[in-house]
Automatic annotation (TrEMBL):
Domain Chitin-binding type-4: 30-199
MF GO annotations: monooxygenase activity
Protein name in the entry: Lytic polysaccharide monooxygenase
Signal peptide: 1-19
Source species, domain of life: Bacteria
Record's keyword terms, sorted: Monooxygenase, Oxidoreductase, Signal
Amino acid sequence: MRTKAKLYAAVLGLTTAGAFVLSTGGASSHGYTDLPISRQKLCANGTVTNCGDIQWEPQSVEGPKGFPASGPADGRICSGNNTRFGELDSPRTPSGGAWPTTQVTGGQSYAFRWQFTARHATTDFKYYVTRQGWNQDHALTRSDLNTTPFLTVPYAGKQPPATLSHSGTLPTGLSGHHVILAVWTIADTGNAFYACSDVTF
């Protein structure tokens, strides 16, 4: 009887360990943009403070894929539909100030850069930008964005390296404060990763 109990405990232990490995394996495949610097990275590096959980997990803004037809709800795009990261959706930082911006120039080439904590099979990377005259006083919605990406980088199911840069031409005809939404679509799950970067044209 004692031998059976030990065997049962060993099997249960292996099963639990296996479930843990499976659950953490998927969760480790995350990433964020740092060029132009994203809101989650600004929180993680301490430039913006009091951000809540996102300051520890800039790589974790994961939500349903299929944007813009599906994906995160309007008003929850920058957080990827994660209420835990709701600070990212606010048009103001947690302290009430403006989100810091990166200076960019329309019509010029820009090297967008992602940092990955683990690699994942990738469908593509897409970049969207807000329309001229968009409403800056509320959380980002589809109506604020040009929902046709200005840059699409197909990735054919490959896994990216730890750091990945790709160049694209920034849209023309924009001035002032805008938000660039970067979307990394995963090939073998139902999710994508989202990053909002504030820029000044």
